[in-house]
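Standup, Tuesday
Yesterday: got the pipeline producing structure tokens again.
Today: sanity-check two examples.
Blockers: none.

Example 1:
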Amino acid sequence: MPDSVASVGKYADDHYCLVPTDEGKYEVFWYERGGKYDFCVYDSESAGCFGFLGLIGGGLSGIQPVLRGQGVRNALGGASIAQPSVRSLIDGDEGTVFGGLSEQEWIERFVVPEDHGLPIGQRRLIWPDGRQHPDGFASPTDRAPARLEPGRLMDSFGPTFTRLLYDLGTPFGTRSLPLDYAQSGYRRWRVLKPTAVWVGPTAPWFGRPGGGKQYFTLMPAADLVGAGFIEEMDK
């Protein structure tokens, strides 16, 4: 089981997590932007492990080489920050990636204290309060149900298990994403069938202005590909 996918014993951004509780139970979930998804609670360690492996098994099917439009190849890859398609989103962004803060100030404010010394990709981040900014939206009332129509072009950062899509070319700063995400793999998608989403502006966070339009899907991108709703485009 790759460490880049699973985390046992603690929360990790963009990972499937198995975490024991103080009550002796075991929580299993996908953790993204401070939120728990596909959340289940088990009464025993063995049951939690079985549930954990079952949840991961569905997501990892996207790693296997398959035909375009029928799954996701290289689910943990994506274009690197060195690619022109990624650089254009960052270079065209006003201000620095730390939002006017020094790197150390940014770390102290937005990285979990125990992880201050860890490198990008391993440190845990402090996300907006989920009650004020559910799923990273500006507010609970600033999101609305919508539908992506066939032919629409979208993009995303991070693994293919993400539920967050953006209009192709949305400036990085308006997404309110940390620098960690700019280095986590960039992908482009084409909508094939009408796809239900929640849509609204992002909350300002990580020293960035926010305000960009984000689309929160009802299932991970990998599952949308497998079901024929979207397909990954060439980088």
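Example 2:
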Amino acid sequence: MNAKIHHSAGRRVVVVLSVALAMLVAACGGSSSDNTTRDDVIALAEASFSADVGLEELPESLKTFVACAVDAVVEELDLSWSDVERALEESGDLNSLTSDTDEMSPAGLECFGELAFEDLVLIGGGSDDDLFGSGASSYGDDPELDALWDACEAGDDVACDDLYWESPLGSEYESFGLSCAGRGCGGEEAAGEAVVVVDGGEEIQIRSLDTITGDLAFIGIPHQNAVMAAIADFGDIEGFSVTMGQGLDDGCSADVADAAARSIVEDAQIVGVIGTTCSGAAAAAALLITDADIVMISGSGTSQTLTSDLQGTAGIHYSPGFYRTAHNDLYQGVAMAHFVFGELGMTTAAAIHDGDRYTEGLASAFADAFEQLGGTVTGFEVVDMWETNMVPVLTEIAAGSPEALFFPIFQPTGEFVAAQARGVAGLENVQLLAADSLLNFDYLELSESEGMYFTSLHTDFGASVNQSTGKTAFEVLDDYRADHGEEPSSAYWASTYDATTILLSAIEDNAEVNDAGQLVIDKAGISSSVAALRDYGGLTGSISCDDFGDCGSQKIVVVHHTDSDDAEAGMVNVVFEYAP
């Protein structure tokens, strides 16, 4: 079976992309390559998309999606406007350009991967029922789905696939189809793929998937270094060495992570992945990777959409086989709300996010908790992550006269907010707040960051020892300095180290040497071992995994940064601790 997306919205995306493209080209009169700019084309696409989903005005997130989708589809099919014109003249649609509309799927899904939940509802048809169904939940509720269930149970994997795609999200129908009636999909072929055989003299293959290029490389590179350190400290497994190969880049984006994930699943020897750095990248990569029976453990992907709402409901991007040693962002937002309301005594606050899963989820968690405590959220705004002028958004925020402004976003956008906020009338004295995404040496060395508070994972590891390597956090950190000549520029180096040793321990527990001297590794067993993890001793403390893959300590701290000339002190100046 193919890796799957959430179906109602996913199918609609591909259809709407084709329809929107056809509409916009027809509106251009077939000569758009000569007379129409990209902006004109995007405007037409927005109009046709708005009409299709029944909205008078698209939110900014969907406008961004439409622009991405049109660019991606044209590139994916290598179209010229004259090609499209001929197709429309001959048949009135785009079917003659491709024999399979699924060719449009990769392009559409790359853009689809960045959409927020409310956008999925809009695309899916405008209501929660379109995504989650309106009553059809378990066997007996829907005759057509029951028929697919019966065929799936009888061994028809195609029926299982159809059942998955046609089922309401979160239903028993969906789960039954996804698991191929609990037997695993693909029959004997899939069972064979669930076992990896490593020949004598070869290495056990895992992969690191982190942000190692671009503006945020300083976050992902320490994670990759931590993976290499953990592999070296752990040592061989049954006489076989372990390699992470060449480090893979997640780009902190859905499209880059998707491409990397596809390269991973195409290599039948890979038995585990450490990553990604960013939650948006994880949302795109996790389904592909875990659907191939490859365990994925992130040391820093913190969005609640990847695991659960901590109340027993799976996140919209939850994938069985994905785990993390980082905390759940719901706690990070709650921690900042408690600090602002209870410690700073402020009763009004605003929040800014950039539409990314991590940033929006964290901003929402803060806003919800702040209101529950009795505070007032005066503004909740989204910014374009590529915009440099924050004044328009900050002016909107200022209208509510907040005492505090929480912006859990990334660089460089976070730099522009801090630099421009106090120059906006009404925000001269606003208290600036951020999250771990900006808690790094590069940001703390900016003068505008002085006086800010940041949430972060708890980094006072004390004498904690990783049970698999026997090393303390101090020893691993000393090794890091010796190997790389600097401090790790991300606070998640330790949780990534723990993620790697947990993976290696699970591989060791599910590997044995056969009579031919080969190492036989049970990939499904690796996931079972991680899922059953309880009280594992890590650098970050005791680690236990819940039913949705949250394994890390949920202890959060707030640090106060006061001196841009001493960024290191700002990283550890803890003024508040929160534990659920």
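Quick observation on example 2: Residues 7-130 form one domain. The chain has four domains: 7-130, 133-193, 195-326+469-534, 330-457+558-578.
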